[in-house]
Design brief:
Strand content: 15-25%
InterPro entries: HATPase_C_sf, HATPase_dom, His_kinase_dom, HisK_dim/P_dom, HisK_dim/P_sf, Sensor_HK_Regulatory, Sig_transdc_His_kin-like_C
Helix content: 40-55%
Catalytic activity: ATP + protein L-histidine = ADP + protein N-phospho-L-histidine
Bound molecules: adenosine-5'-diphosphate
Pfam family, one: HATPase_c
Number of helices: 11
CATH topology of the largest domain: Heat Shock Protein 90
CATH architecture of the largest domain: 2-Layer Sandwich
Keywords: Kinase, Membrane, Phosphoprotein, Transferase, Two-component regulatory system
GO molecular function: phosphorelay sensor kinase activity
Radius of gyration: 36 Å
């Protein structure tokens, strides 16, 4: 059936709509006034009977092509515990009004079909039917009730679409995480073997030319880099599955920071790291994970600034027992828009993607580690003026 009009049958107000719309469809088809009234009466009597029992009915009116001619059809679907019978006055009356009347269905789900053969003289065809359909799509609401009903149904449709979109996005995200997890596990094994063989080759007693030594060092360096990327991928899938494990130890924060800065300074000789540390405190941290936080934030501070610029690291212990650590660079900074997304998985600022290598994993993992330690992470930045990343950690006892 080509549906022309559809009305949900919820209450008595819908009877008016059912009646008027049935009349209008019959009128637009060019049927006589008597036929219009008969068809509309049958439809509204059935609608009335259905509304008596349930508020979940739907009326659809449309045109169906039988073998040789077109028929006007009204189709009412509804769920009800009670089955309509000829004992229902309206239902009984409607059966008498239309030439074809059929009630089908079981287990509480029913369909009533009412059909009226259309005269050949109407010369209906697919084009005329589609014009009819368009007319009703564009027709103004009959009354304020129908207007509200349409808006409601539009809202319902939008909500359903959004829910579907959300469900699809979630599914894609789950698939992506699953892929990352499998891919990183698969990459890890050959990489470990590659690294082990490179180490063996580097420490061999057999004579090795200087050129080969250089090549081995390069393989070693690149496989270390690759290893750290694979490790980040593994961390992402672990973070997604809630499997990031922490081995917490109580440490004195200031000496831990000083150690981290020394390591990072040796890795980043093109930048000078200055530090101003406040009062010391003990913190409960997973040392390896917290090293990752410092390495990501300091690494970014260097990566996104010009060489020979300074990086300032500071810490402040507040009266509530939280220590805030700040890492300030003089680099490219970022827009307010970028700042809202930098802790998202795989996010990279658009302009940065063309100029700096990276995968957008570091800050996502960093923020996860910080929040899992009971802290918070945030950023202050201005484009071309540098960025300051702050994160805090709860102290377990002030020294
Ligand atoms: P990656 O550096 O691999 O892109 P991150 O997750 O560490 O991944 O960073 C995400 C994005 O945040 C970067 O692509 C960059 O746009 C921005 N960003 C991070 N740190 C800085 C910084 N210190 N200065 C400017 N932009 C930064």
């Amino acid at each position: 059936m080509t549906e022309v009009v559809s009305i949900s049958l919820e209450n008595e107000m819908d009877l008016v709509l059912a009646h008027k719309r049935s009349m209008k469809v019959a009128e637009k088809l060019g049927l006589t006034v008597a036929t219009q009234t008969t068809f509309a009466t049958a439809v509204s009597e059935v609608a009335r009977a259905v509304i008596e029992y349930t508020d979940n009915g739907t009326l659809a009116i449309g045109i169906e092509q039988n073998k040789t001619r077109y028929v006007l059809k009204a189709n009412v679907t509804f769920n009800s515990e009670i089955k309509l019978t000829s004992g229902d006055e309206g239902f009984y009356y409607a059966q008498k009004l239309v030439p074809e009347f059929e009630l089908t269905g079981q287990n509480g789900a029913y369909i009533i079909d009412m059909k009226l053969g259309l005269p050949r003289s109407l010369k209906l065809d697919a084009v005329k039917i589609s014009i009819l359909k368009k007319f009703f799509q564009e027709e103004q609401p009959l009354n304020p009730y129908e207007e509200i009903k349409r808006r409601n149904s539009h809202l319902h449709k939008l909500t359903a679409e959004q829910e579907e979109e959300l469900r699809r996005t979630k599914l894609i995200d789950e698939k992506k995480t699953e892929f990352i997890s499998i891919a990183s596990h698969e990459l890890k094994t050959p990489l470990t073997v590659l690294k082990a063989f490179t180490q063996m080759a580097k420490t061999t007693k057999e004579p090795v030319s200087d050129r080969l030594k250089g090549i081995l060092n390069k393989i070693d360096l690149q496989s270390t880099k690759l290893n750290s990327l694979v490790q980040q991928l593994l961390d992402i899938s672990r973070a997604e599955n809630g499997n990031l494990q922490y081995n917490l130890k109580q440490v004195k924060l200031n000496s831990f920071i000083i150690e981290q800065l020394a390591v990072m300074q040796s890795i980043m000789p093109n930048h000078t790291i200055n530090s101003t540390l406040g009062d010391d405190a003990d913190v409960m941290i997973d040392i390896l994970r917290m090293e990752q936080v410092f390495s990501n934030l300091l690494g970014n501070a260097a990566k996104y600034s010009n060489i020979n610029t300074d990086i300032e690291v500071g810490s402040v212990l507040d009266s509530e027992g939280y220590i805030t650590i700040s890492i300030k660079d003089q680099g490219i900074g970022m827009s307010a828009d970028t700042m809202t997304s930098i802790f998202d998985k795989f996010y990279r600022a658009e302009d940065v993607s063309k100029t700096h290598a990276g995968l957008g994993m570091g800050l996502y993992i960093t923020s996860k580690i910080v929040t899992d330690h009971g802290g918070k992470i945030w950023v202050e930045s201005e484009e071309h003026k540098g960025s300051t990343f702050h994160f805090n950690l709860p102290s377990c006892c002030i020294v």
